[in-house]
Amino acid sequence: MDVSRPFAALSDGVDADVLVVLAGSTLPQSGRELARRAGRSNTGVQHVLDRLVEHGLVNRAEAGRIFLYTLNRNHLLAPAVEQMAGARAELVQRIRDEVGSWWLPPVHASLFGSAARGDGDTGSDIDLFVVRPGGTEPDEPPWREQIDRLAEAVRGWTGNNAGIVEVGEADLTRLRQDRPPVVVELEKDAVKLAGEPTRTLLGRM
Q1: Helix ranges restricted to H, 27-137
Q2: From 156's CA, which of 28, 127, 136, 174 has a CA 20 to 30 Å away?
Q3: pLDDT tens for residues 14-37?
Q4: Quick check: 159 and 2 in contact, CB under 8 A?
Q5: Whether residue 120 sits in one domain with residue 79
Q6: What is the pLDDT of residue 110?
Q7: Exposure b/e, 58-76, CB count within 10 A at least 16 = b
Q8: Distance (Å, whole) CA 198 – CA 104
Q9: 129 and 40 in one domain?
Q10: In terms of domains, do 119 and 181 share one?
Q11: For residue 9, is pLDDT > 60?
């Protein structure tokens, strides 16, 4: 899955870009504004808008010398559009739910890297940082099964590999002192999934 544009798995055209922008706001927007936000040409976006209005999926209202557009949320296809637009948020929630179901909870788990920033592509890993509780060895069957199940689930949900950086609770002090690249990335863009907040954890490191 292209984590910067998850909807591209269904449609890599202007239509999907326009619909995702419309789904992200309830405010009316001009064709020029939609083109800017979608990163597409004004002409291409206008052709798409005309067709979507014809199908009733998009509402058009005259405002002086311009037209303003909104997603018709009463349309039968609107829920599918909103689900497509929310694919990245859905991924985060699914990972949270999976980690939240673990029999042996982590001290901390977070999403970081391109998946957290939303700028990856189909070849990007879904990067996860997981801290084992003290006294738990990395190869202990209950813990290992949880990690493996998470990696398998992420692959099934996205088609991307899970890049899981796993450390023990006792390693946190050393990580703070050495400050490897993963710590810098976590400080910049981590999305907490479970356990202690990222800032609290980094401060304790």
Answers
A1: 31-38, 42-54, 78-85, 87-100, 114-117
A2: 136
A3: 888 899 899 988 999 999 999 999
A4: no
A5: no
A6: 96
A7: bbbeeeeeebbbebbeebe
A8: 19
A9: no
A10: yes
A11: no
Token pair listed for 194? 């479970």
The residue range of the domain holding 186 is: 87-204
59 in Cβ contact with 153 (< 8 Å) = no
Are 69 and 96 in the same domain?
A: no
Instruction: Give me the numbers of helices (H) and strands (E) for the chain, helices first please.
Output: 10, 7
What's the CA gap between 81 and 74, in Å, rounded?
12
The Cα–Cα gap between 127 and 181 comes to: 13
The structure tokens listed for 119 are 């700028």
Token reading at 169: 């609770």
Q: Which residues of 82-102 are buried (b: 16+ CB within 10 A; e: fewer)?
A: bebbbbbeebeeebbebbeeb
